[in-house]
Amino acid sequence: MEYIKKAEKTAESNTKKIRGIVKDILAQIEENGERAVADLAKKFDGWEGDFILSEEKKQRLIATVPEDIKQDVRFAHEQVHGFAAAQKESLREFEIETIPGVRLGQRIIPMDVAGCYIPGGRFAHACSALMSVATAKAAGVQTVIAASPPRGESIAPAVVYALDVAGADIILEMGGVQAIATMAFGLFTGKPANILAGPGNAYVAEAKSILSSDGKCTIDVFAGPTESAIIADKTADYMTVAIDLVSQAEHGYDSPVWLFTDSRELGEKVLEVMPKVIADMPNPEVPDASWRDFGEIVLCHDREELCKVNDAYAAEHVQVMAEDLDWWVKHLTSYGSLFLGEGSTVPHGDKCSGTNHILPTKKAGHYSGGLNVLKFLKVYTYQKISQEANQVISSAASRLSRVEGMEGHARACDWRLRKYFPERDWDFDVYKQSTY
After folding, report:
1. Is there a catalytic annotation at residue 331?
2. SS3 329
3. What is the separation, in whole angstroms, between the first and last Cα of the chain?
4. Which of 31, 120, 276, 325 is the most buried (most CB within 10 A)?
5. pLDDT digits (tens, 9 = 90+) for 33-77
6. pLDDT in tens, 194-247
7. DSSP E strands: which ranges in 265-327?
8. % helix / strand / coil in the chain, to the nearest 5?
9. Active-site residue 317, yes or no?
10. Residues 77, 81, 125, 317: which is the catalytic one?
11. Catalytic-role residue among 173, 250, 296, 316
12. The CATH classification of domain 2-10+225-362, taken from the options 3.20.20.10, 3.30.930.10, 3.40.50.1110, 3.40.50.1980
């Protein structure tokens, strides 16, 4: 392969510095609790009001949302919740008998409390509210706590409406590391979260990672800067490719966008028109920096090499504008979410098509998919073994325990063999002397 355009920078942030700052903030909150949260909210957001959004204020904010926007939010909710519900139905409880008297089963139990973070900043992320909260509710989570940074005197009204439609039980007007810690520790609500979900800035992502590694809760995915890749062959329309690259470059100054192609002509044409498409944006400085510093066009020999390059990058979003779409579905193995054909663009998934837009970045697609209903479910197993079946299971488990040098385990099995089958002469010394 060769680069028609190579990135000038990598998307690696100053992780060590950020981790140190976040650890200090989390330590403050763990030591001083709600008082520390209030101090941090005043410092970072200028917020001194109540953190839990009251029903009266919620309804007042919802009343300001135009009806056409409400209709679109409801449509998006139906799509996201519907797909999540179908995911849940794909996983089932069952019980099987593997040998006579040995019954093994699976139970699926929703988590008790989910904490969902909705970013603030330059955008009002109403769709992010749906992605996490609606998915948690489709899983059957009893209590969903949502947190979003206030913009002035409140959370953005459209976000409040989306949270209400999705079924958030408690809404916190709070952002940043303090919001993540509040949900994890159960501050102001008395309900510590079992899982933290939702995208955020580098500090939010780091807080989720630390709390998860410390065993406080689990998380959905590690969500860094948005990444998008397009795989395109000679049949692709260069202008569609360029427009879609710019659509994702507007996420942030450090959001990489990549084009993988086996057509030099297409790659060079996209390179030519990108500055014009960017300049036509109302706020071109963000996509301009993203494309200049992190954008790449990679030229490959054939579609097999395109697959290898794509899977090496493991982008958060991957669009395919190429012939034989079914071939790509079968051969691509590492990505956050896949968008097939010119008719499928990443903004569809970001907003309302139904698949979740909270997806793995920084090559986490090598080992994980994005947020889905299964993340909010606990899959438990159980067993029922009859006395008669112990003749097989306990004798095998006893021998295997001694192979591993675990005498206590072996004796628990031996006891059952003696108790259930007293008429049989069990030669446990033979088990002890056996070598494998």
Report:
1. no
2. helix
3. 51
4. 120
5. 999 999 999 999 999 999 999 999 999 999 999 999 999 999 999
6. 999 999 988 999 999 999 999 999 999 877 889 999 999 999 999 999 999 999
7. 296-299, 317-321
8. 50, 15, 35
9. yes
10. 317
11. 316
12. 3.40.50.1980
